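User: Quick sanity check before I run a bigger batch. Here is a single chain. Can you write out its predicted 3D structure?
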Amino acid sequence: MQFQWNDNQPIYWQLRERTIALILEGTLSEGDALPSVRQVAAEFQLNPITVSKAYQALVDENIVEKRRGLGMFVKPGARVELLDNERRKFMQDEWPAIRQRIQQLGLELQQLIKDLDKDEG
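Assistant: Done. Predicted structure follows.
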């Protein structure tokens, strides 16, 4: 699988973000093992130290845990905690600008909800 790396962030951070996205979308569930450092390094043609740094960041953030001799695993409760954090960041960082843009364009909440329902149907 190919993955396009962004020059604006360190690769280890992008790998960390990608792993978080996999947990949030349910591809990696609580208790699941993360792919090995060697496997990820080979798949994405990365230095194993880069992969280890990404995984260590996840350990430091209490999202995954190291099990000696077994590997890295998604911690119980990680997805719920990540969702809470992402929702809080959205409400603080993104929502104010979106809300301002909605008001600026004179959009009505009911119409937005109606359009959303139409898209999902």
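The longest strand covers residues 64-67.

User: Great, the batch can go ahead then.
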